[in-house]
Specification:
The protein is of the alpha+beta class and 706 residues long. 42% of the residues lie in helices and 13% in strands. A five-stranded mixed sheet has the order 2-1-6-16-17. The longest helix has 25 residues.
Length: 706
């Protein structure tokens, strides 16, 4: 007897309605299967006719139905499939590489570094500094003939190509890989990328990176911007980078003045200046002439030079035998140093930015006056060497000429900057001595004197009398002045000579010291210092505020002494000395702070000081201040030249400072053994006599009066 066991009842849902809904949802795998099934059902019938062809394209290797070596030769279908696959993969790789390549943000510093050029006040080049001879030029300033000569030589399809040349790259790769050689295959865009962003290595990886960046750069920059960059960064030989420097090096003129023939010669250098500089060898000359001819003919072919214009250029444009280089030299180093310091400070240019170059610095230096001043000092040095060969080894000469409007016209900084680095004209080294008296005189005339501490100031005029005797005690309102050692201070004249009662104007003309030592005390040494600083002397050069201040215990530089005397010639108006008129960078004006004119002393006071200086010059050197060499005042009236000698108490320095033809010049001579100390040594006759001193002779020749 069989017993039937009923089937177990179906499980009941224990989770409720929500669980039932979740269990009814398809799983991700189910969704994928369903999608593929639907795609098969939809596309299957449509793709069915292609199935036989797909089976034929499917690689079956070695090939069935073939015998021998034929089994191993792919069919044309297999070749086609392999080519299409390779092309697809290569295209995908190039797309990914293009997307992954970025244009570098930091440029190749050497490729963009330029030199700085300094110009004389007349606009002619004076000196060039920097490691690289390059000056960038805006494209608008480069003639079209020059541009198209380069394009004809290097890349005539520049304005229509995508930034790269597939044919050129393929040829270059074949030469590099297949024959172990290198050959250019680059567009101008690629060459610019190589110059600015990459290095000069001839490798496949560098060429590939160059091409990718060139493609991107061509989409980011205009063609004119790329061409401008290329022309300013390419090497042309003779140590020059950029078309502007090349034009100056090979033809001695700016690029704006080149003609098509000269441009074609320069364009030939881009293929390799070592092979195409015609001045290097006869073989080079032949190559350069052939390429020059080819470039001009090419310009005609592409419609950038008419046959009539081409007919004008039958003779090869011979370049200069040597580059016209404006390099720094013996004196120009000192000028460059002054101008560079002023340019950085006034234009707020950092050292790093300045070193990148590209600045054109137009200085205030007058070529003729600089030459005259240098010749005068050189002659004095030569004479001193003959008179005292031993003593001249420690001799130092500093000189500077400053115009009444503050322009530094000329300086003598030393025999050679390469052997003596510090600038004598700008050094605060020795005391001013009696050359400081005009500032004391101006302070007394400007502020008056005080006979009592609390009383009002008494006016002073050039006719005011003071005791000019030697050894006169210096007094204060309370009585004699005592120094810290307990000794009474007395004033002394050169040579111990006494003059009795003498007017201040006459005392300055005759360089009598004693009246001015007392005048300084009566005016107030603070007022004397204030007047000297207002006239142009630096606070850092001022000496201790003791009676000796009036006799020149301060140590102004020759530049500042000349600037102070220029204030008197400028009717009491002072402008701080400056050495740069304007600055440009790659044709654009660089903003700079310019010194402003300010009132130092009253016009009447300045005129009275100038008159006393004229009397001083005429007293010591009759006929020197001739009407043929007037000094033009601010009012336009002609004033005679004037100046004053300066001596120090221990005969350690000799000065002459004065003004002629609206330019003040200060000259100082002293001895110092720099190998031992910075203490001045006695001159021992090196500076000549007081009335016919070496500083005066230099001053007279520099101003044209000697």
């Amino acid at each position: 007897m069989q017993i039937r066991v009923p089937p177990p009842p179906p499980p009941t849902a224990s989770g409720g309605r929500a669980d039932r809904r979740r269990s009814a949802r398809p799983t991700p795998r189910g969704r994928l299967v369903a999608a593929l099934t639907g795609l098969r059902d939809t596309l299957g019938p449509r793709l069915a006719p292609l199935a036989p062809y797909a089976r034929r394209l499917r690689p079956r290797y070695p090939r069935p139905g073939r015998s021998g070596w034929r089994r191993w030769v792919p069919s044309w279908r297999q070749w086609l499939g392999a080519w299409l696959t390779s092309f697809g993969l290569l295209s995908l790789f190039l797309v990914v590489a293009y997307a992954a390549t970025d244009i570098p943000t930091n440029l190749n510093t050497y490729a963009t570094q330029q030199d700085n050029v300094y110009f004389w006040s007349d606009g002619t080049p004076m000196a060039r500094t920097g490691w690289v001879q390059r000056q960038a030029m805006p494209l608008k300033d480069i003639p079209e003939d020059v541009r198209w000569a380069v394009l004809a030589a290097e890349n005539e399809s520049f304005y229509s190509d995508p930034g790269i040349s597939v044919k050129g790259i393929t040829r270059a790769l074949w030469r590099t890989v297949g024959q172990g050689d290198t050959e250019g295959g680059s567009t101008i865009t690629q060459q610019y990328v190589k110059n600015v962003y990459l290095n000069q290595n001839q490798t496949i990886s560098r060429k590939f990176t160059e091409a990718m960046i060139a493609l991107k750069l061509d989409n980011k920059m205009s063609k004119d911007e790329i061409l401008e960059g290329y022309l300013n960064t390419s090497w042309f030989g003779r140590g020059t980078y950029g078309i502007q420097r090349a034009s100056q090096a090979y033809y001695g003129k700016d690029v704006s003045k080149l003609n098509a023939s000269e441009a074609a010669m320069l364009a030939s250098l881009l293929k390799g200046a070592g092979l195409y500089d015609p001045t290097l060898s006869a073989a080079n000359h032949k190559r350069a002439e052939e390429r020059w001819t080819w470039i001009l003919d090419r310009m005609v072919k592409i419609g950038k030079l008419s046959p009539a214009e081409r007919a004008k250029y039958r003779t090869f444009p011979e370049p200069l035998k040597t580059a016209r280089v404006y390099d720094t030299g013996k004196q120009s180093d000192y000028l460059v140093e002054l101008a560079q310091q002023y340019a950085k400070k006034s234009a707020h240019i950092s050292d790093k930015q300045f070193d990148l170059g590209g600045y054109q610095i137009y200085t205030t230096f007058d070529r003729k006056r600089e030459s005259r001043l240098t010749d005068a000092v050189t002659k004095a040095r030569k004479q001193a060497k003959q008179d005292d060969p031993k003593g001249v080894k420690t001799a130092h000469y500093g000189a500077a000429s400053v115009a009444t409007d503050g322009r530094i016209i000329a300086v003598y900084g030393g025999p050679d900057h390469r052997t003596q680095g510090f600038n004598e004209s700008n050094a605060s080294t020795v005391k001013a001595g009696s050359a400081f008296l005009p500032f004391v005189y101006a302070a007394g005339l400007e502020h008056g004197v005080h006979k009592t501490r609390s009383g009002p100031a008494t006016p002073v005029t050039p006719q005011t009398l003071y005791n000019g005797d030697n050894g006169v005690p210096v007094t204060t309102p309370e009585g004699p002045y005592w120094d810290r050692s307990g000794k009474r201070v007395a004033a002394h004249n050169d040579g111990g000579q006494s003059y009795g009662q003498i007017s201040l104007g006459k005392a300055l003309a005759q360089s009598v010291n004693t009246p001015f030592m007392q005048l300084g005390m009566d005016t107030g040494l603070a007022k004397v210092r204030q007047t000297a600083e207002a006239a142009g002397l630096l606070p850092s050069s001022m000496g201790p505020q003791v009676p000796a201040m009036s006799l020149g215990n301060s140590t102004p530089s020759a530049i500042r002494m000349a600037s102070g005397y220029a204030t008197f010639a400028a009717q009491g108006q002072h402008t701080d000395p400056y050495s740069v008129l304007r600055i440009t960078r790659n044709g654009s004006v660089v903003r700079m702070d310019t010194p402003t004119e300010r009132r130092a002393v009253g016009a009447k006071v300045a005129q009275e000081v100038s008159q006393a200086l004229t009397d001083s010059l005429l007293t010591a050197h009759p006929g020197a201040a001739s009407p043929a060499a007037p000094t033009a005042g601010r009012t336009g009236a002609a004033l005679p030249a004037g100046g004053k000698a300066g001596t120090t108490e221990n005969d350690t320095a000799a000065w002459y400072a004065g003004t002629a033809d609206s330019v003040s010049t200060a000259v100082v001579v002293y001895r110092m053994d720099l190998a031992k100390s910075l203490e001045p040594l006695p001159l021992k006759g090196l500076a000549g006599t007081t009335n016919d001193s070496v500083p005066y002779v230099i001053w007279a020749k520099a101003t044209g009066l000697g």
